[in-house]
Write a structure and sequence with these properties.
Blueprint lengths: L1 E6 L5 H19 L8 H13 L3 E7 L4 E8 L13 E7 L8 H15 L4 E6 L5 H6 L3 E2 L9 E3 L2 E9 H14 L5 E4 L11 H5 L5
Parallel strand pairs: 1-9
Antiparallel strand pairs: 1-2, 2-3, 3-4, 5-8, 6-8, 7-8
Length: about 210
């Protein structure tokens, strides 16, 4: 299976809007229960607003141009519960029929690469799934513990884990994983966009957005 990693912000409006609607459906099905009163339409509206406010969304598409996964790089998360931490890996989701084939490491690798391009040295992530701690640790993340010494925080009455990592270390660890598991798949990184070019940070930031 051939997977291409792209930055959603660079895509034509028609394709961007199609993918945004799909991502909104994914996010609502997975995390809607944590937001009282949320709908797919509201989630879609918030995603578009988030992009306009600087969020970068990275997508994985297969050879049939079908969206199979996405992840976001956000400056703020959790309604400023941790304003000292930025940026965030947020909303990583793989379409159920394409799971367990190595797509999430591709997305995390792409997000780390983008974070470095944009001048960030650290990355943060939180998850309602406490069992994901070991998964993230595999790619260079370490747990941030509350002052109480427990493994998790409480956010909107739900337990969460909070982790941090060096963006360069995440890039190295995911790249190692991809190379080790790349015998049966071919992956194309950053096809037809800025990420394979040695451009200045300002040029990356000024690339077309909706």
């Amino acid at each position: 299976m051939h997977i291409t990693i792209l930055r959603l912000n660079d895509l034509p409006d028609e394709k961007l809007n199609t993918y945004i609607f799909q991502i909104a459906q994914w996010h609502f099905s997975e995390w809607g229960k944590y937001r009282i009163g949320s709908t797919v339409e509201l989630w879609e509206k918030n995603l578009l607003k988030s992009i306009q406010n600087g969020t970068r969304i990275i997508v994985a598409v297969n050879s049939n141009d079908i969206l199979v996964g996405s992840v976001s790089l956000k400056k703020e998360n959790m309604e400023n519960m941790f304003p000292e931490y930025t940026p965030w890996l947020s909303g990583i989701f793989i379409s159920p029929e394409f799971r367990l084939v190595g797509i999430s490491p591709l997305l995390i690798n792409g997000l780390a690469k983008l974070a470095i391009i944009e001048g960030y040295s650290k990355l943060y992530v939180f998850s309602h799934d406490l069992d994901l701690e070991n998964y993230y640790k595999r790619f260079g993340w370490s747990l941030i513990r509350p002052e109480s010494g427990e493994n998790h925080y409480i956010y909107k009455n739900f337990p969460i884990i909070l982790l941090e990592a060096s963006a360069k270390f995440v890039l190295e660890k995911t790249q190692q994983y991809i190379e080790q598991h790349n015998n049966s798949q071919k992956h194309s990184f950053w096809k037809n966009n800025h990420f394979d070019r040695k451009e200045e940070k300002s040029e990356i930031q000024d690339s077309p957005r909706p």
